[in-house]
Amino acid sequence: MYKFSLDKTSKKFICPRCGKKRFVRYIDNENKGYLEGNYGKCDRETSCKFHESPKQAYQSTIVPIQEIKREKSTIKYNEVIKSGKNYKSNNFIQFLRTYFSDEELKAVIKKYLIGTSSHWNGATVFWQVNQNQEIVTGKVMLYDLATAKRVKKPYNHINWMHKILKIPNFELEQCLFGLHLINEFPTRTVALVEAEKTAIIMSLFLPNYLWLATGSKANFKKELLAFIKKFNIIAFPDKSEYEDWNKKSKQLQLDGFTIKCSDYVESKNVPEGTDLADIYFESKKPKVVEIQYTKTEIEINRLAKINPQILNLIKTFELLDDNDNEIVNVG
C-alpha cells in the first residue's frame, strides 16, 4: 500500500484553482485521514487540471529505513580450551604421529589451536580465529585413522561447533583458517591451500611459509583474502582447480593483491582432488610409532588382570585419566 493515495470515494471539495466542487483530496493511508493543505487533484481535466502531489513536500520527512546490523557472532575461547585434550582419540593427530615427532605435533597443535571433538569418535576441530583473535566458529571433521582421508560414508562427516553447541541466532561469518597467525608472522609469504588439514601438514613440511586455508574451493575470494592483501601470496589449488583459482588470482592482482597461483599440483599425474600434502607424503616414509602408555593406563590394566570388569566400568562411564585423556586398554 502507498503512503499517500487519492480518495476513492465520491466525496469532493472546492478546487483551490477553479473554485468548483470537483477537488479530490489525498489521503494519508498510515494515519487514515486527509492531508492538510491543497494536496489533491481537480477532476475537471479538460479545463482546470490542477494537481498538487504530497510526494515532494513530504519526502524530506520520511525517515529512511536503516539496515539492521547484527552483532558479530563469536564462540567463547573456553570452548577452544575444552577441545584441547584427548588427542589419543583424535584420528588426524594420531595419523600425523606416524610421520612427525611428538615435539612437532605439540607445536603445530598449539599454533593452529587444533581440537578434539566427541561429536564423532576420533573427530578433529579446526577453529577459525580471525585477525582480532576472535573465535568465529569451528569446523568439526572426521578422518580415517589409517589414511587421514575424510570419512564420507555413510554420510559426509562435517559439522560446525556453533551448531553442536546450539548457539541461538548464530550469524556465521567465516575467515581463513589460520588467519590469527598473521600478526605473529607479518613478513612471511602466505601459502594458501583449500583444506585445513593440508595447511597444517604443509606447515610441518615447509615451516618457512605461513600456511592458511580457505576451507573450501568457493572460499577463495576477495572477501576472505582481504586481511592478507599486504602479504605476498602463493595459492596452491588442488588437482583440477587450477584454472578457476588462477583466473581469480589474476582478478585479485588487478585489485592490488600480490598473488600468484602455482600449477605444481596440476602438473602432476595424480587423481582429481589430490592436494599438495598428498604429494609431499609420497616421498616421506612413516616412522615406527611406539605406543606409550600412561601410568594410569598401566595401573588400570594391571588391576584389570585381577578384575576384568574394571575395563567395562571405564567404557560405560567414559572415565578419563588425570590429563582428561581416554584410558587405553594395554591388552
From TrEMBL:
Q: Which InterPro entries does its entry note?
A: DUF6371 (IPR045951), Zinc_ribbon_put (IPR047731)
**Record-annotated Zinc beta-ribbon finger putative domain positions:** 2-59
Q: Where is the DUF6371 domain?
A: 90-239
Q: Which Pfam family is one of this chain's hits?
A: Zn_ribbon_16
Tell me the superkingdom of the source.
Answer: Bacteria
Q: Can you name this protein?
A: Uncharacterized protein
Q: In which organism is this protein found?
A: Flavobacterium gillisiae
